[in-house]
Amino acid sequence: MKAYVDKETCIGCELCPEICPEIFFMEDDGLANAKDVEISDDLLDSAQEAEESCPVDAITVE
Ligand code: SF4
Hints:
By secondary structure, the protein is an alpha+beta fold. It has a single domain, classed as 2-Layer Sandwich (Alpha-Beta Plaits). The chain is built from two helices and four strands, in the order βαββαβ. The strands form two sheets. Strands 1-4 form a two-stranded antiparallel sheet. It is globular, with a radius of gyration of 10 Å. It binds iron/sulfur cluster. The site of iron/sulfur cluster has 14 residues, from helix 1.
């Protein structure tokens, strides 16, 4: 499973890197992105929590 951020939708609220900093990070443009890595089992819960918590549904974990 990998995480993706739709940068057209992200509003830069900084919530996802707070919930799951191992996967999500803020970029210089003020928007979030997700590391291009396979999400390990121990991080899956927090990555999915970030996906569910995003206020604009910009995150996909699949
Ligand atoms: S939680 Fe959603 S809106 Fe907030 S920074 Fe992350 S992707 Fe962007």
